[in-house]
Automatic annotation (TrEMBL):
Matches recorded under Pfam families: PhoX
PANTHER family, A to Z: MEMBRANE PROTEIN, SLR8030 PROTEIN
Protein name: DUF839 domain-containing protein
Native organism: Actinomadura macrotermitis
Signal peptide: none
Higher taxonomy: Bacteria, Bacillati, Actinomycetota, Actinomycetes, Streptosporangiales
Coiled coil: none
Superkingdom assignment: Bacteria
């Protein structure tokens, strides 16, 4: 994918390829030749923020919510390293709840909660739950899970909870094992600091869930060796809080003759997959990804998202210098459970203008997407139009920290996104969303 970072910010020259999501979700991420990135598309050029925080198009504004270190009450402050986020209906009409991850182990501004919400007192990660009004103004917030580690991404369940994933296999000083998935009730009534052990212990990144079968698809961001793509088939199908605790079968994806997904470089390539049972999902003695003689791996498996009957998952980059079989600056794959195939939907070429795809959400305006960039140099929120024209929705004017947790409110009025650090903060972006051009 070859569209310039600075060119997008300034409304500059045309790029060779674009992100596309038009009409059917089958076309998500398909490459599109000759896409422009001029100021005529999207919501117009970015306007420099006089505060030097967040550049947005004319007519849009932002609020800074829940900044790292802000007081919550009783000596508790907002934890650091804001990451994956999901939105849910609020306690009243026109309100929204957000559940937000904090990607830190025994470092950073600690997530502090009572023992009824704390898993391991030695770990500083966790989640916070926020409630905002229809304009994105903060009404309340609290630490909704504490004592977990490196809470990176996760996934929203069909039954209205948040699965927060630990991207670690442990750290020095821990008092309990780590590398698990925890479930958070956005209403705050049922959350318990108990891992969903059936989902396996590994360096979890994200999870996408089939709303009909409740099968979960999980990514692993790990090295030496690289991570795997997993499938969890639950024993219980009732679809309610902690239903995964009843157990099930954890499998790993295997494609014969493709030991490394980075070797696939042509969009549209479709591969038949097999699923191999993970011998010991608890990884009591050996990491799950090391329990196979033959398996398919990928460097930097990141985001996952379910749509149109398929599971989409992202690899942020691959580098031969790090031991990968081939180089790329990002891949997006789609798994079709009906045909048991995966297909390469998009590839970012090294040296292009965009790199490091990570969090993504579908825009309710025009069928496009909003993508959180986690690459080198400047960081943007990138959108696409009805005609698949890419545009810069926002630029981090404050520092080079990545954007995370990009997601719309349930009513589509507010776009939320986090600056991960320096300090971490959540932005609530509002404006004339219906004026999308192109």
């Amino acid at each position: 994918m070859s569209v310039s970072r600075r060119g997008v910010m300034k409304g500059g020259a045309a790029g060779a390829l674009s992100i596309a999501l038009a009409g059917s979700l089958d076309s998500i991420f398909q490459t599109s030749a000759g896409a422009d990135v001029g100021e005529a598309y999207g919501y117009g050029p970015l306007v420099a923020d006089p505060k030097g925080v967040l550049d947005l198009p004319k007519g849009f504004s932002y609020r800074e919510l829940s900044k790292e270190g802000d007081p919550i009450g009783n000596g508790v402050v907002v934890p650091g390293h804001h990451d994956g986020t999901a939105t849910f209906p609020g306690s009243r009409p026109f309100r929204t709840r957000l559940v937000r991850n904090h990607e830190q182990s025994n470092n950073g501004t600690r997530a502090v909660a009572g023992p009824e919400l704390t898993y391991d007192p030695a770990a500083n990660g966790g989640t916070t739950t926020l409630e905002v009004d229809h304009e994105g103004r903060l009404l309340s917030q609290y630490v909704s899970l504490a004592g977990t580690a490196v809470n990176c991404a996760g996934g929203r369940t069909p039954w209205g909870t948040w699965l927060t994933c630990e991207e670690t296999e442990g750290f020095t000083g821990q008092t309990k094992s780590h590398g698990w998935v925890f479930e958070v009730d956005p209403k705050g009534r049922r959350t318990r600091p108990e891992p969903l052990t059936a989902l396996g212990r590994f360096a979890h990144e994200a999870v996408a869930i089939d709303p009909h079968t409740h099968i979960a698809y999980l990514t692993e961001d790990a090295a030496k060796p690289f991570g795997l793509f997993y499938r969890f088939r639950p024993r219980a199908h009732r679809g309610e809080y902690h239903s995964y605790q009843a157990g099930g079968q954890l499998d790993a994806m295997y494609i014969p003759d493709v030991p490394d997904l980075s070797t696939v470089q042509e969009p549209g390539t479709r591969l038949k997959v097999k699923w191999l049972p993970v011998p010991d999902p608890s990884a009591a003695a050996t990491s799950t990804r090391k329990q196979f003689d033959k398996i398919t791996r990928s460097q930097k498996l990141e985001g996952a998202w379910w749509g149109h009957g398929k599971a989409y998952f992202v690899a942020s980059f691959s580098k031969t210098a790090s031991g990968a079989a081939a180089d790329h600056a990002g891949q997006v794959w789609v798994y079709d459970p009906r045909h048991e195939t995966i297909e390469l939907e998009l590839i970012f070429k090294p040296g292009g203008r965009f790199d490091g795809p990570d969090n993504i959400t579908v825009s309710p305006y025009g069928g496009g997407v909003m993508l959180a960039e986690d690459g080198d140099g400047e960081q943007h929120l990138i959108g696409t139009t009805r005609a698949n024209k890419p545009f810069a929705m926002a630029r981090n004017a404050f520092n080079d920290s990545e954007f995370t947790g990009v997601t719309f409110s349930p009513d589509g009025r507010v776009l939320f996104a986090n600056r991960q650090e320096g300090p971490g903060v959540t932005f609530a972006i509002t404006g004339p969303w219906h004026r999308l051009r192109g």
